[in-house]
Predict the 3D structure of the following.
Amino acid sequence: MRFLCKSLRVAMPVFVFVALLTSVSAQDIPDHPNKLKFPELKFEVPSREGMRHTLKNGMTLWWAQDKGAAGLPALFRLEAVIKTSDMLDPAGKTGLGSFTMSMMREGGTATHSREKLNRELDLRAASLGADIDENYASASVTCLHRDHALCLQLYSSMLRQPAFNQADVDRVRAQWLQSIRHRNDDPSGIEGREWSRLLFGDHPSARSVTRASVEAITIDDMKKWHQQYVQPQNIMLYGSGSLSAGEAVKALDTIFAEWKPTGERNAFTVPEATQAAKPGIYLMHRDQAQAHLRIGLVAYQREFEDYYPLIVMNQILGGGAFSSRITQEVRVKEGLSYAQGCRFAMPDLYKGDFMAYVQTKNETLAFAARLVMREIARIRDEAVSETDLETAKQFFIGAFPQQFSTRGNTVQVFALAEYNGRPENYQEEWRNRIAAVTIADVQRVAKKYLKPDQLVIYALGDVAKIRQGSSDHAIKLADLGMPVTELPLPEPENLTVVPKTPEQPKPPQTPVEPPK
């Protein structure tokens, strides 16, 4: 009897489970995952209230209190956004801004040698960073909350009192020169560099450091650059940590108490970008099994009215991974590539480029180029489907909340929006503007910015095989109907073209008689 009762206790949950399973199976279950229905998820952009503050020396601080996850030590993070650009480097000294920012981190400070600074940071699992791009320079500190007072002192010293001593400058310069010597080892690096030089010519955005420019930069140049740009009037701060906003403001007012503005906020512009290369095909030889293809033109400077339909159009054309047309044609249907797609560069300071790309065998490059150009023409000439439009829009709307995943990320979004001059309601309106994009909008911007008669095609690979084409496809490079120009691959150090040395005729060899 005891055994029977025990068996019933074990079996009863099984009976209940089977009954529930039968009940569920009787309901209307979709026959395809696409038909599943989910409740609508609501997301509201976090409030900015209480995040923006002004320090006594005039610097703006965006701060979000974030005590971190339960059971884990709280972190302190702070970043300075500095109003400057690597496009402002003087002629002959390309890399000055980047070299200076590197030395701020790699060269120690007036109070700490590089070795002592690194030791202090390593003991606390803390980090300092300094960098620059075309939009701004940045300097950051990350540490445990308990160490924030000391790390703020180190951070302030890095910002205000970089050492620029000769030994460290020589060490970093040698590292740069070694990297420059080997930069032609990376085909992707060549592709990006030479595409910019081809398309933008002498525009500051297309400049590259060279051996000559790095060797020309002096310590005095770096000190002057630092004095001009790394000053309170040019800096916005944002950060997060356990400190309340009031505590953060007090700590930063204390650490920067003696750091006063030296003038007006830096304001700069860059020259207008125009397309330097004429429409056509440009081939650059490099002995490699796979060719790198780019197709594009100088197209767009960020204007808000066209921004939203443009990113939706780009998503449909080639930005949307397996849902995009270029990936479907080039990879899924034809199996030509694992790397393909397109993107619009949308800088605030100058007109950027549209660029479609494919990496494929040398022999199939012409066929891949034809497929991409066909899709560019199709999105101009034919209205996209409602399904394609909604898939692209829902991708952006669904991904939008990710940028607010932490308090630190949230305050960064708000700070950089202000730095870049976005409207105050930019984030609140973003999804509405995406949702409002229509089929007609997509075709309008495709016609406006994708101009087939201005396209430039650049290919890096084995030129003979690229010209030869593939026996599996009838299309040849000449069939694309564009003039073809072969460009020499510049040598890596100064990006100059080294003339080929003509091959010397080999002397006739005297046949060697076999031993008797």
